[in-house]
Amino acid sequence: MSPRSLVFLVGLAAVGAVAGCGGAVDDRPPKWSFIAATIVEPSCATVNCHSAITQRAGLDLHDRESGYYALVNGNYVIASDPDHSTVVEYMNASGALRMPPDVPLPTADIDLIEAWIASGIPNN
User: Fold this and answer.
1) Which of 2, 61, 98, 116 could disulfide-link to 45, CB 3.0 to 4.6 Å?
2) pTM of the model as a whole
3) Is 87 exposed, middle or buried, given 0-12, 13-18 or 19+ CB atoms closer than 10 A?
């Protein structure tokens, strides 16, 4: 292989590597059914927090339906307005105000919840 071909292949590999590092597209659906099952129930509806038994701050998130109505009726989410939704403020807070308090949610999860709120908080 000629040095010129080698330089070309190395350059092509570098371009491919950079293109692959552009960040993965989050193809998870911004649907309440998905968010409740994969984010809220395992991260928030734990025994010490917002379970059917504990209900900290009067908030029961233990299943899809009760979680949805608790967030909506408690004004924790404002349809089409994630910037003024209390739940988003808590997820982005620091210290004792952050929810969940022990391990913050990944940014991608918060973004997904914000997308659901921005879409009008459908119970889908």
Assistant:
1) 61
2) 0.79
3) buried
